[in-house]
Design goal:
The complex is a heterodimer of chains A (about 350) and B (about 325). Chain A is α/β, with parallel strands linked by helices. Chain A contains 13 helices and seven strands. Chain A has a five-stranded parallel β-sheet, sandwiched between helices. In chain A, strands 4-5 form a two-stranded antiparallel ribbon. With about 325 residues, chain B is of the alpha/beta class. Classes of the chains: A alpha/beta (about 350), B alpha/beta (about 325).
């Protein structure tokens, strides 16, 4: 079992392929046919294209602050390919890939970052919560959903993620403590991308790694190479089987690197070096998976053409988001309550009177 | 030394930075910390350069844990230091709320004065910058409602510096809310020297006779724009900048209402159960017989501040301030 063999106390890391795409752990290589591997790579290509487009729309002033996911693709693809339609996702904010595979659309993602709450109304995605900007709070919700589905004897499990910085919040520990007690079917991932805005993970905790925190809560934990698609896939597979068997929660530390800025408002040159970025670039999840496929001779697609195709698709969705009907006054009020108090209705009417006056002055 | 005072043009960001710098220099018990507050100098660069100058033991980054930032800050305040802690955004002050309401605010009372909590909890507040969720809130009423806290909201670089110095010197805990929307929008000549502005004193920015307008923080600038319109309309407005929400300067407010007989309150926060409500109570309790029109609150809806697309519908504009002033004056 991966969770027993790679003990966080010994700071072991689970890895299946090396930076050259060579399989270094044949025993734990997940049993995937070539078609699935190719599909995983295509997902990752799409995520990265979408992400680059998002940053570029923001730079053009067509969208507001956006947190790029670039570098996280292997984690997102693996989780997204394993999570089922009925399973739940309580996402943090650097989760676009998993969300897409769960049925969220880029149009919705764009709407949200254009500043429209409609972008959290995932029309075709089953059981996906709005992203959590409030660091760590989603872990508690995942624990609660875990209790609920278990209580209702449903064949559903829960996925949630947090960043390395989020592990310092009280919510992180409280959620995992409850999870251990309640044995909830929840897969908790820490996407450790080395930085919480400007603060490196070594200044976040004195623990040898983040997976070791699982010991304090009595749940299995493992540190995984998050830039290794196969390692992530194998880990999620084992974790979901464990959860579905009613054994409870697990904590996965997925080691990766935030290749982009924290958000488009951030400038990483203030706090990290080019040398460090280049060192991590060697572990890029996409380059590694590509090398694996090349070694095996299974990648026959024209990558440039594919990326162009994806970018066109993303652009189409962006335009749809841009062409959404204008934001109306009722959009401010209508969803504040299920049963709107009279006073709130009056505030709306008063404001409409002001708007009428404003019109009359034109 | 009159006439020799050196002045520099500063934004609010620079003025607060300058105040922190002066206090770090003068008082070795002052420490400054928070998420990204050290190496990076804060996401808005308010603490930029301070770690380099004053060292990593006095200006530093913390893990992401607001409850811990406030709670450990309190521990330091109880034992000889004067912490100035940064919470990154208004909406991220809430994970620290329990420490603030259950501990920071009441330590002096609980220990019958044995333990004081001389600390400043500062965070940027308010909307209008097209931000993500939890980055646009105005929680001054929440904090002003807690006995034991002082709550400060500056509106200019000069006031930001003087009030920050007073806040650090205060032996009571101070919530210091910084108007992020005008962090860099206003530039003003500010003295390079150390000076402080007493907490609890409002400032009359414009004298007038027809109506009293009370505002603070970001909304002062919007009121000043509205005053251009009222001037054209021949309405004489007395504009008061609260500067400190609690303790509230009743004297200045009541004297003004007695003069003008009319009151308009401008703030970004939701209307109900707000600082606006408190000001109306003061008007009723202290100047009831002088009022000639119902006091009016020009404030936010009782909703969450919408995301960027809807935010313009929520934000208080100079036009809306003018509209309500005119209606109140014509009542």
């Amino acid at each position: 079992m991966i969770f027993n063999d790679f003990d966080p106390k010994e700071d072991k890391i689970f890895r299946v392929i090396d930076n050259e795409g060579k399989v270094i752990n044949k025993n734990l290589m997940p049993d995937l046919d070539d078609e699935t591997v190719i599909q995983a790579y295509k997902h990752m290509l799409f995520f990265r294209a979408a992400d680059e487009m998002a940053v570029s729309y923001q730079r053009q002033g067509r969208m507001y602050t956006y947190p790029p996911c670039i570098g996280h693709e292997a984690i997102h693809a693996a989780a997204g390919m394993i999570i089922r339609d009925q399973d739940w996702l309580a996402p943090a904010f650097r989760e676009v890939g998993i969300m897409l595979l769960k049925g969220v659309t880029m149009k919705e993602i764009f709407l949200y970052y254009m500043g429209n709450e409609e972008g959290s109304n995932f029309k075709k995605a089953n059981h996906v919560l709005p992203i959590s900007i409030s660091i760590g709070s989603q872990y508690l919700h995942a624990t609660g959903i875990g209790y609920s589905v278990k209580h209702q004897r449903k064949d559903e499990i829960v996925f949630t993620s947090i960043g390395d910085g989020g592990t310092s919040e009280g919510d992180f520990s409280e959620a995992l403590n409850f999870a251990g007690l309640w044995k909830v079917p929840v897969i908790y991932t820490i996407q450790n991308n080395q930085y919480a805005i400007s603060v490196p993970v070594r200044n976040q905790t004195n623990a040898v790694n983040l997976a070791i925190k699982s010991y304090g809560f009595g749940i299995p934990g493992v540190k995984v190479d998050g830039n290794d698609f196969f390692a992530m896939y194998a880990t999620y597979k084992e974790a979901t089987e464990y959860a579905r068997a009613g054994k409870g929660a697990v904590l996965i530390e997925a080691l990766t690197y935030r290749k982009g800025a924290h958000t488009t408002s951030d400038d990483p040159t203030k706090y990290r070096t080019k040398e460090e970025e280049l060192e991590w670039a060697k572990t890029d999840p996409m380059i590694r998976l590509k090398k694996y496929m090349d070694n095996k001779g299974i990648w026959k697609e024209n990558e440039e053409e594919l990326i162009e195709k994806y970018k066109l698709e993303v652009d189409k969705q962006f335009e749809e988001a841009e062409n959404m009907a204008p934001y109306k006054l009722e959009d401010v009020f209508n969803y504040m309550y299920v049963d709107m108090p009279d006073d709130l209705k009056r505030q709306k009417t008063d404001y409409e009177q002001f708007l009428t006056w404003k019109e009359s002055k034109k | 030394m009159e006439g020799e005072q050196k002045m520099s043009v500063m934004t609010i960001v620079q003025a607060i930075n300058n105040a922190l710098d002066i206090m770090l220099e003068e008082d070795k018990t002052v420490v400054v910390f928070g998420e990204d507050a050290g190496v990076e100098g804060g996401v808005f660069r308010v603490t930029e350069g301070l770690q380099k100058k004053h060292g990593v033991e006095r200006v530093f980054d913390t893990p992401i844990a607001e409850s811990a930032i406030v709670g450990t800050g309190l521990g330091m305040a109880l034992s000889g230091l004067r912490p100035v802690v940064e919470l990154q955004f208004d909406g991220f002050s809430y994970p620290g709320f329990n420490q603030i309401i259950s501990n920071v605010s009441r330590m002096n009372n609980r220990s019958r004065g044995m333990y004081k909590a001389p600390m400043v909890i500062r965070f940027p507040y308010g909307g209008g910058i097209n931000a993500l969720e939890h980055h646009s809130e105005s929680p001054e009423a929440l904090y002003s409602h807690i006995p034991g806290l002082k709550v400060v909201v500056p509106s200019t670089p000069h006031d930001a510096k003087g009030l920050m110095i007073a806040a650090i010197e205060s032996n009571d805990p101070v919530i210091f809310m910084e108007p992020k929307r005008i962090y860099r929008a206003i530039k003003q000549e500010v003295s390079d020297d150390k000076f402080s502005i007493p907490l609890g004193k409002a400032k009359v920015l414009n004298e007038g006779t027809d109506v009293t307008v009370v505002a603070f923080g970001t909304m002062i600038r919007e009121c000043q724009k509205a005053l251009v319109m009222t001037k054209e309309a021949g309405i004489s407005v007395e504009l008061i900048d609260l500067r400190t929400i609690y303790p509230i300067d009743k004297e200045t407010i009541v004297n003004s209402i007695k003069k003008t007989s009319k009151l308009v309150i401008v703030a970004e926060a939701p209307t109900s159960f707000s600082v606006g409500g408190e000001l109306m109570a003061i008007a009723n309790e202290e100047a009831f017989l002088y009022l000639e029109a119902p006091p009016k609150r020009v404030m936010g809806f009782d909703t969450i501040v919408p995301l960027a697309k809807g935010e313009p519908l929520y934000m208080i504009t100079p036009e809306r301030i003018f509209y309500e002033i005119e209606r109140t004056v014509k009542f």
